[in-house]
Amino acid sequence: MKILKQLHRVWFMLLVFIFFLLFFPFYYLSSRNERFYPVLNFFRRLHSFLASALAGIFYVYHVEQRLPAGATYIYCANHTSNLDIMVFCILAKGSYHFMGKEELLKNPILRLFFKTIDITVNRDSKISSFRAFKKAGENLDKGMSLVIFPEGKIDDQYPPRLHSFKNGPFRLAIDKNIPIVPVSIADIWKVLWDDGSRLGSRPGRCRIFVHAPVSVTGLSLADDEQLRDHVFEKIKSKLTDQ
User: Fold this and answer.
1) What's the per-residue H, E or C state across 144-210?
2) pLDDT digits (tens, 9 = 90+) for 188-228
3) What is the pLDDT of residues 92-110, one digit of tens each?
4) Domain extents for the chain?
5) What is the pLDDT of residue 238?
6) pLDDT at 242 over 70
7) How far apart are CA 233 and CA 105, in angstroms?
8) 128-174 pLDDT, tens digit each
9) Are the C-beta atoms of 71 and 119 separated by less than 8 Å?
10) Which of 88, 90, 198, 207 has the smallest set of CB atoms within 10 Å of its CB?
């Protein structure tokens, strides 16, 4: 069984790499100008769907409330797998960007995105965090939704647990008056935990619960912890295996 999971991981990573090479001209050209970021995101969506589907990995979205096209949100989700990025490449529409750890600049595929459309942050540096959230705020002002994993890390224990959230995304939401969409990624870690290097991966169906947007209208920055805890409980409510 372990050998089959490792073979599946190799096959999946090969698919990811092949489609990256096929789409690279589109990625490169559309990353040169912010006007073409929706085009870049269209190919990220196609890339994620094709690589996952051909590996037998499918995402089942349970959406509590339809999200209008063109609306700007801050998506907050738990984080247990590298597949989490693909979940949002398929879920989010139009203009959006990710915030992720600085180490992603070393990833040969993700580097292109985190040097252009997406934002990296060194979570051990207050200056880096300030700059990252300042840039995210500027992007939100332009109508670009933000995808962020407020735990700030993937748990190194298996099965993974939900860790406490950082305050940054919630202060940003209040400051910019942008609704937060809590997303519970329920069992994707069973298909591929972390980067799959230890346990491999396998085909499967992954459940994603997209909660109704949480309005921040009327809140002040002093309410950031209350908002953080509310979103935490929303996400935790669907994580029955954690």
Assistant:
1) CEEEECCCCCCCCCCCCCCCCCCCHHHHHHHHHCCCEEEEEECCHHHCECECCCCCCECCEEEEEEE
2) 999 998 877 888 999 999 999 999 999 999 999 999 999 99
3) 988 999 999 898 899 989 9
4) 2-236
5) 93
6) no
7) 32
8) 999 999 999 999 999 999 999 999 777 777 888 899 999 999 999 99
9) no
10) 198
- Please count the CA atoms within 13 angstroms of the CA of 179 that sit on its side-chain side: 13
Cα–Cα nearest to 195, from 91, 81, 71, 76? 81
Q: What is the CATH number that goes with domain 2-236?
A: 3.40.1130
pTM surpassing 0.85?
A: yes
Q: Could you tell me the pLDDT band of residue 114, with boundaries at 50, 70 and 90?
A: very high
Q: How far apart are CA 240 and CA 69, in angstroms?
A: 30
Sheet holding 119-121, edge to edge: 57-63, 204-210, 180-185, 74-77, 145-148, 96-101, 119-121
* Cα–Cα distance measured from residue 60 to residue 53, given in angstroms and rounded to the nearest whole number: 12
Which DSSP string corresponds to 85-130? HHHHHHHS-SSEEEEEEGGGGGSTTTHHHHTTTSEEE-TT-HHHHH
Residue pair 221/63 in contact by the 8 Å Cβ criterion: no
Beta bridge partners of 61: 208
Please tell me the distance from the alpha carbon of residue 20 to that of residue 111, in angstroms, as a whole number.
12
